[in-house]
Design goal:
By secondary structure, the protein is an all-alpha fold. Helix content is 64%, strand content 1%. It contains 11 helices and 2 strands; from the N terminus they run ααααβαααβαααα. A two-stranded parallel sheet has the order 1-2. Helix 2 crosses helix 4 (99-109), helix 3 packs across helix 7 (182-194) and helix 5 packs antiparallel against helix 7 (182-194). The chain is globular.
Length: 277
């Protein structure tokens, strides 16, 4: 009985999220009669789409127009056609992408995971311990998922190659961040869900991280090398798109460093300069 009461807290919370997003953006007659699962998926779909477009347009406006030739040389700015193609691919996949957080919320609501509702339940000290462990699991999982999407040829051919048609600086943009085959995009986000079964995880932190992925992937596809060690920024990821066999990591360079797949943008720039000389 106590367990059911506790799980009800998750249901109340997800219902509140649904009401906030759907209640402000859609007529109530369009969604209030839908089952809770479909309400949650619709909320995630709308929120994910808005986040993708808002972050993408603001990012492109800043680096390609307000700071034109500051961060990205004029001749390496992707064409509008290339960006529209990326948006088209991402929008085809978005209904499927947003199934993942919907399913993860369903599993949390049913008590299948180690999620907890409030940080006060375990205290800040425990939260500060568990949260980095969650991130380590995610980093490990995404590295190996990404690497296998390259190493297993059928997976690359039928899934990951969709994303790697953007293989030069003038074809990459923040909008490429979600331009994947839907199964590919889901596979690379699955470690976020697997972590829920392995380590106690704060519910809102989990949901926030899944949606922050849209902003993070926009960042690592803008081709701007921030040189912020040990972050796996756009400089590293641009090399990944041109060599296909380096820099598989997601947030940091640690996995690539440990497993010998790291290629540093600084070293890459030096090698190009030597060739020119």
């Amino acid at each position: 009985m106590e367990g059911d009461k506790y799980l009800q807290e998750f249901l109340v919370e997800t219902s509140m999220f649904n009401s906030i997003v759907l209640g402000h953006l859609l007529p109530s007659s369009w969604w209030v009669t839908l089952p809770h699962f479909l309400q949650t998926w619709l909320r995630n779909y709308i929120a994910g789409t808005l986040l993708y477009f808002i972050s993408g347009f603001l990012w492109c406006f800043y680096i390609y127009y307000l700071k034109r030739n500051v961060y990205v040389p004029k001749d390496t700015i992707p064409s509008n056609r290339a960006m529209l193609l990326q948006i088209y691919v991402a929008m085809k996949a978005m209904p499927w992408y947003t199934l993942l957080p919907t399913v993860s919320e369903y599993m949390i609501e049913n008590g299948w995971t180690k999620c907890f509702s409030s940080i006060s339940e375990i205290g800040w000290f425990a939260y500060i311990i568990y949260f980095p462990i969650y991130l380590v699991i995610v980093e490990f999982g995404i590295y190996w998922m990404h690497r296998e999407l390259h190493d297993i040829k059928p997976l690359y051919k039928y899934l990951h190659a969709t994303h790697h048609i953007y293989n030069k600086q003038n074809t990459l943009s923040p909008f490429a961040g979600l331009a994947f085959h839907p199964v590919d995009g889901i596979l690379q986000a699955v470690p976020h869900v697997i972590a829920l079964f392995l380590v106690p995880t704060h519910f809102r932190s989990h949901v926030a991280l899944l949606f922050i992925e849209a902003i993070w992937t926009a960042n690592i596809h803008d081709c701007i090398h921030a040189n912020l060690w040990p972050v796996m920024g756009a400089g590293y990821h641009t090399i990944h798109h041109t060599t296909y066999k380096h820099n598989y990591g997601h947030y940091t360079i640690w996995m690539d460093w440990m497993l010998g797949t790291l290629r540093d943008p600084e070293d890459d720039s030096c090698q190009r300069a030597q060739k020119v000389q």
